[in-house]
Amino acid sequence: MECTIHWLPGSGMGMVAETGSGHLLTMDGAPDGGGRNLAPRPMETLLAGAGGCTAYDVVLILKRGRHAVSGCELKMSAERAETDPKVFTKIHLHFVVKGKALPETAVARAIALSHEKYCSATIMLGKTAEVTTSHEIVEG
């Protein structure tokens, strides 16, 4: 996996990441850190990437189990250390999974499998942060 970060001179602290798959992702810093608040912070991007990784797992596991999943929303909250390097110390993942007659046990198992085995991003972040999960199922 590769990624190249380009600082955008004249933008304050604006940066563009070019991923190995050829996609662009813009990031910026807070105004008090030289940024102009024009894009997500790098740590927000890290959190969003971890959320995308685990939500992807949950949907894929449910689909492979032939469950009628039709939606997945992941609400994330995180706390960071007060002092540098200000790592994540707590991350909570709340899954809202939508589908037709989704078994509670299947949803719980998909989340557990992602959390414990498949999601490299949340497993890696779990080395510094307490990662917790919860979920709800919406019929539809």
Automatic annotation (TrEMBL):
SUPFAM superfamilies given in the database record: OsmC-like (SSF82784)
Gene3D superfamilies linked: 3.30.300.20
Pfam families: OsmC
Superkingdom as given in the UniProt entry: Bacteria
Protein name (record): OsmC family protein
Upper classification of the organism: Bacteria, Pseudomonadati, Pseudomonadota, Betaproteobacteria, Burkholderiales
